[in-house]
Please model this.
Amino acid sequence: MSAQEKGKKQAVVIGAGVSGLSTAHALLEKGYTVRVIDRMNRPGGIISTERTPYGLVESAANACIASDRMEAISAQIGVPLLPLKKEARARYIWRETRPTRMPLTFREILDFIPRLIRFLFLKSFKPARVLPERRESVRNWGTRVLGAPITERLLLPALQGIYAGSSETLSANIIIGPLFHKKPKRKGRLKGSVAPQDGMGAWMIRWKEYLSSQGVEFQFGAEFKKEEIAQFPDTKFYFCGSLGETKKLIPGLPFEKAQTLTLSTVTIFYKPDPQYLKGFGVLFPEDSRFESLGVLFNDCTFPGRTDVRSETWIVGGIRGKQLVEKDSSEIISAVKGDRLRLLESLGIKGSLLEVEPLEIKFNRWKDAVPHCDLDLEAALQEKIELPPNLFLIGNYLGKLGMAKIVDYAFEVVGK
Ligand SMILES: Cc1cc2nc3c(=O)[nH]c(=O)nc-3n(C[C@H](O)[C@H](O)[C@H](O)COP(=O)(O)OP(=O)(O)OC[C@H]3O[C@@H](n4cnc5c(N)ncnc54)[C@H](O)[C@@H]3O)c2cc1C
Model:
């Protein structure tokens, strides 16, 4: 007897990236018969991991933020999540001529202390005074609440590194607003950034295998036709594509003005050397004149990723809009220029500056992430009109990180 005959509820998930897999997982737990369709020939969407002779290369996310749900899924699919290595605790931001762990001067720190006390007091007792206002930029919110030095030196560089957006228009409501939401007490044991030993792509493959073993049907290399939504009114359709793909499939949504950002990663392997900077990585603020948004030191982040020096340089977003469209060779050459500047700022001289890489791997994703700006905020405040059997899940709905996307998928299915 087929599932349909048994009277099980039917659902189709379009997209087998992290949004689609978490939606399929949530639907399975709710007792649906689930079919997942993706035009790619593998699960993971923009996330994949390449295993090279020198170590792992991630095409997009390198890690996710630990959450109870991520820990529960990791236990179910049998892929443990590892915490960061100790040496990754050092995180750097470029200031003037060098990377620094504390991009504020002693004077700026002293000036910030009373502002911080005031902020913490107001957040607890009069949150309306420090909550982001409607259509307020992060720069405006930061200057108003925390002061200009911390906003320019710490907040904006950190957020530009993560969101790749414009300092003028990043939305405080989307980015800062969630900090004011009451968080349920965590039960899990992990904190901060976590990742599976074999990389994020391996996690996606294992997740798909688990879902298949539980009866979820996967169709790869298949294009979804939106006519199906009207043809099968009793089936629920969950569209889990990127913002660009969603705009293409369903014109007329409030997201017309919202932009997507292209991002590129250049992972470079070198022979190890004690002179290299150790830590999570370095973020390069807008005024640093670096072409890259930041660099991750993969040999210092998670165990088992590589035995040599491995760096992932990230280019694109609003600042690197022009560069990221160029030939991979031009992007790699810009990254090499940035790298030379970073090494020289550390006082490294001689042959280490000229040493040839062991391997270079290039990835580029058009439409990789949404620009979390005031246009996206405006779109999210509008009512989204959809057919009653169609639901949207994706990183443009105000939840950019993987852990948040997964929680959101379970929330939507749970409704
Ligand atoms: C360089 C980079 C670094 C990042 N780092 C991090 C990080 O460290 N931590 C973190 O949490 N996040 C990170 N992110 C963000 C994170 O990777 C993404 O938000 C997330 O992977 C998006 O997943 P998704 O499933 O929503 O979309 P996608 O991965 O884009 O998947 C959508 C899928 O839908 C399919 N699809 C769409 N339309 C159709 C159709 N009509 N028919 C059939 N199939 C269709 C596509 O083929 C695709 O496989 C990073 C992103 C980038 C680019």
